């Protein structure tokens, strides 16, 4: 095999990427996974995953990531830890460039996932790691016995509040509407948690800080009343932004920046597939990302065999 040439290059080592790698490698194709830091993507920052089948007691996200990587490696998939700087996905032979190497393949699987959205408040960026966090399971332990708030109303916010309620003295949940978007499984445990207070119809308007975060101003949207919360930590769980900047101008993206691809994971470019959180999809879960990976491998196999005819 020519150096740095593969049947498929998978950009991103989350559950979608490693499942694509497993299926492709098991089907006899040479597969390279390019991963920036360590396997797992956002899944690796999840303490306990209870809704991935086969783990009746739940599973730690980082451990599951390592197992997924091992599963793909067993069939010969390779991993390189390297950040992709640019891609050229348009021709029949795609090019993926990292700081050290240029890799080439007739098929590419885009699996770069999504990153947490910011609130955009003054001080938010500077306070990252000094009171502001986007990952409760990564940083929660620094706030043991303290008072924190979580902003958001989706599954991430709900899961974060429950996780933090077991560590912290007090947890506020600040949500901009009067109803959570989170699935119903979270509602009862949230009601039962004695140290959780939900602030409905509320928005953080200002971060209060010196060297580190000291609190936040929270405005009730209906009454206009502003309340000052004294806080040691603020966890932002206000959704995800797809990591698709690298592909802009080549792969078709929708207004939200998600790759336009249906259940086949095919994009507008022949030989380019999109799996997991970065593509348009109704449910972003480990299991749906993994399913995408399998589907992408199926269609890339079809694409490669038609190419050879
Ligand atoms: P999400 O479902 O998009 O929810 C984002 C939340 O943040 C919404 O409640 C939204 O409010 C709020 N929000 C957005 N922008 C805001 C702003 N500028 N100010 C204040 N609030 C703002 O995001 P997510 O919770 O991170 O979940 C992402 C995906 O991962 C989802 O598909 C989710 O199901 C999945 N996930 C699943 C699990 C699980 O199954 N256990 C756990 C975590 C994540 P509105 O409701 O008013 O729009």
Automatic annotation (TrEMBL):
NADP keyword on record: yes
FAD/NAD(P)-binding domain mapped to chain residues: 6-293
Source organism of the structure: Candidatus Acutalibacter pullistercoris
Enzyme Commission code(s) on record: 1.8.1.9
Catalysed reaction equations from the record: [thioredoxin]-dithiol + NADP(+) = [thioredoxin]-disulfide + NADPH + H(+)
InterPro entries to which the protein is assigned, alphabetical: FAD/NAD-bd_sf, FAD/NAD-binding_dom, Ferredoxin-NADP_redctase_2, Pyr_nucl-diS_OxRdtase_2_AS, Thioredox_Rdtase
Cofactor: FAD
One Pfam family named in its UniProt record: Pyr_redox_2
UniProt KW Flavoprotein keyword: yes
Enzyme class label: oxidoreductase
A GO BP annotation: removal of superoxide radicals
GO (cellular component) term, any one: cytoplasm
Similarity comment: family membership: Belongs to the class-II pyridine nucleotide-disulfide oxidoreductase family.
Superkingdom of the source species: Bacteria
Molecular function GO terms recorded: thioredoxin-disulfide reductase (NADPH) activity
Oligomeric form and interacting partners: Homodimer.
Keyword annotations of the record: Disulfide bond, FAD, Flavoprotein, NADP, Oxidoreductase, Redox-active center
Cofactor note: Binds 1 FAD per subunit.
NCBIfam families in UniProt: TRX_reduct (TIGR01292)
Protein name per its UniProtKB record: Thioredoxin reductase
């Amino acid at each position: 095999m020519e150096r740095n040439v593969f049947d498929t290059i998978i950009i991103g080592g989350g559950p979608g990427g490693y499942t694509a790698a497993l299926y492709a490698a098991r089907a006899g194709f040479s597969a390279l996974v390019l991963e920036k830091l360590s396997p797992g993507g956002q899944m690796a920052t999840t303490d306990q995953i209870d809704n991935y089948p086969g783990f009746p007691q739940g599973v730690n996200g980082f451990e599951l990531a390592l197992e997924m990587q091992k599963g793909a490696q067993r069939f010969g998939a390779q991993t390189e830890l390297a950040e992709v700087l640019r891609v050229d996905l348009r021709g029949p032979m795609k090019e993926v460039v990292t700081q050290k190497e240029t890799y080439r393949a007739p098929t590419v699987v885009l699996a770069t996932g999504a990153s947490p959205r910011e609130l955009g408040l003054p001080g938010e960026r500077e306070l990252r790691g000094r009171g502001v966090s986007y990952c409760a399971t990564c940083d929660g332990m620094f706030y043991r016995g303290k008072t924190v708030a979580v902003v958001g109303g989706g599954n991430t916010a709900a899961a974060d509040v429950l996780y933090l309620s077991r560590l912290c003295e007090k947890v506020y949940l600040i949500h901009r509407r009067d109803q959570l978007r989170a699935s119903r499984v979270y509602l009862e445990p949230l009601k039962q948690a004695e140290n959780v207070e939900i602030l409905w119809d509320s928005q953080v308007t200002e971060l209060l800080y010196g060297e580190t975060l000291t609190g936040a101003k929270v405005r009730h949207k209906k009454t206009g009343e502003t309340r000052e919360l004294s806080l040691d930590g603020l966890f932002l769980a206000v959704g995800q932004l797809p990591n698709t900047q690298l592909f802009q101008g080549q792969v078709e993206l929708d207004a939200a920046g998600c790759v336009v691809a249906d259940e086949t994971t095919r994009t507008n470019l022949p030989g380019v597939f999109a799996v997991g959180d970065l593509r348009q999809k109704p449910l972003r879960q480990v299991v749906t990302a993994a399913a995408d990976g399998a589907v992408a491998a199926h269609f890339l196999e079809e694409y490669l065999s038609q190419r050879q005819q």
